[in-house]
Amino acid sequence: MRGIISAGAYIPYNRLQRSKIGQTLGTGGGRGTRAVASFDEDTTTLGVEAGRIALRGAPGVVPGNLFFATTDPAYLDKNNATGIAAALDLPTSVGAFDMVGSARSGMGAAVAASGLTADGRVSLVVASDLRTGLAGGSDEANNGDAAGALLFGDDAAGPVIAEYLGGTCATAEFLDRWRTPGASNSKVWEERFAEAAYAPVIEQAVADAYQATGLAPENIDKVVMTGLAERAVRSAAKYVGVAPDKYVDNLYSSIGNTGTAHWVVMLAAALESAQPGQVIMVVNASDGCDVLVVRTTDALSGHRPGATVATQIEKGNDGLDYAKFLTWKGMLTREPPRRPDPERPGGPPMLRSERWKYAFYGSKDRSSGAVHLPPQRVSVRGGAVDEMDLVPMADVPGTIATFTIDRLAFSMSPPLVAAVVDYDGGGRFPIEMTDCDPAEIAIGMRVEMTFRRLFTADGIHNYFWKGRPLR
Predict the structure, then answer these.
(1) What is the CA angle 159-313-451, rounded to 5?
(2) What is the pLDDT of residue 445?
(3) Domain assignment of residue 303, yes or no
(4) Strand partners, 465
(5) Do 408 and 337 meet the contact criterion of CB atoms below 8 Å apart?
(6) Which of 328, 348, 379 is where one domain is finished?
(7) Residues 53 and 98 in one domain
(8) Is residue 463, in this structure, part of any structural domain at all?
(9) SS in 3 state form for the chain?
């Protein structure tokens, strides 16, 4: 049996209440909230968090390939998937590939990964997107930021929680949404045109999926249906032919449409509430239509992702103000801190310290058990030299021993909160806190680590780990 071994999604902590858009601009907005990546998050860091969640649901499974899909890569002319692989502490033998440019690239990554399972190979698909638009527009209000991850393989690699039954594609060339290289916002053709253009390809893909799998509408238990042309997606539901209550919540009211990542996020949410033996059809309309059909197995009952979609949505912070949202999205340029700009990171030192910088490894003295952060050659207990083992610390929680709130340090979202953390099992390190209210920080607070972007200088993103309250 081959299919999905694990699934996970990452929803950023911050939310923007859509009503705040209208309150500020006098137009736009609406009801509900949209998910907002923090100032220190990009599609790479979102992808790392989604990958961590999915891999926690499949202990011991190591993918041989990593496919990363997004419409908003942090780098061009440089692979972004390699950074995700490094932060996930995958072996150097892994193949790490970017599939970027359109919202369909996420499904393309899944097609590639599912095909490799026939050869017994395990692949991790990570789909991540930051979606926004011009102030007051529908894209700004209705889109959102998130990432999802799927681990494809067979029973030899780990218990399959959703068996792959088949998939189909229908492709057509038409212009309904586009963005030229270097542009920050997409343009959209008239919605009625998109509805007419998408209808035949969705109808064809769904019909082909029923024929390929030998299933009928009455055999479908859940439907994940999404795409960037929302009106076209709604009107095409008639081709699927199932009852309205079988459609999975599209999450638009809580997090918005997250583009490349959205069908993966919705599928992860569907698997969280599914029962063994249920058939799930995924319909993704983007520059054509792709359909993926899976059947959940008995192994689903024992699947425990690192964090559920429902829990992340419930624990989000909807207090983000609109001015800060605009600043984080680069649409409002504010006076920077009156401090020297940070110097760009260097390639050689980043290479030398890769396991510390990306995977957050410490060193542990074999004789005394003392943990050192960052890794050291000489032990603080006994002075033993080169008697160390590397230990992964990214998933180790800790406790704040002391902290400070710095209103003068350089930060894209001041004030900067710095804390000294004692890690469970040993190790102490000063870290920057994120996704928190400075007023809530206290000695004794429990924290966990999260992969973030410290700053960008000369086009180089300085990635490292920060702490966030353990909620």
Answers:
(1) 70
(2) 98
(3) yes
(4) 451
(5) yes
(6) 328
(7) yes
(8) yes
(9) CEEEEEEEEECCCEEEECHHHHHHHCCCCCCCEEEECCCCCCHHHHHHHHHHHHHHCCCCCCCCEEEEEECCCCCCCCCCHHHHHHHCCCCCCCEEEEEECCCCHHHHHHHHHHHHHHHCCCEEEEEEECCCCCCCCHHHHHECCEEEEEEEEECCCCCCCEEEEEEEEEECCCCCEECCCCCCCCEECCHHHHHHHHHHHHHHHHHHHHHHHCCCHHHCCEEEEEECCHHHHHHCHHHHCCCHHHECCCCCCCCCECHHHHHHHHHHHHHHHCCCCCEEEEEEECCEEEEEEEEECHHHHHCCCCCCHHHHHHCCECCCCHHHHHHHCCCCCCCCCCCCCCCCCCHHHHHHCHHHHCCCEEEEECCCCCEECCCCCECCCCCCECCEEEEECCCCCEEEEEEEEECCCCCCCCCEEEEEEEECCCCEEEEEECCCCHHHCCCCCEEEEEEEEEEEECCEEEEEEEEEECC
Q: Is residue 351 assigned to a domain?
A: no
Residues 132 and 14 in one domain: yes
Q: Do 418 and 307 belong to one domain?
A: no
Same domain for 220 and 160?
A: yes
Question: Does 390 lie in the same domain as 318?
Answer: no
Clarify whether residues 324 and 366 are in a common domain.
no
User: Do 448 and 315 share a domain, yes or no?
Assistant: no
Our count of domains for the chain comes to 2
pLDDT score of 337 more than 80: no
Where does the pLDDT of residue 382 fall: very low under 50, low under 70, confident under 90, or very high at 90 and above? confident
In a domain, 350, yes or no: no
What's the pLDDT score for residue 451? 98
Residue 342 has which token pair?
Answer: 């940070």
| Pair 416, 308 in one domain | no
pLDDT tens for each residue of 208-242: 999 999 999 999 999 999 999 999 999 889 999 99
The Cα–Cα gap between 244 and 264 comes to: 20
Question: Which structural domain range is residue 369 located in?
Answer: 358-469
Amino acid residing at 292 = L
Would you say the pTM of this structure is higher than 0.90? Answer: yes
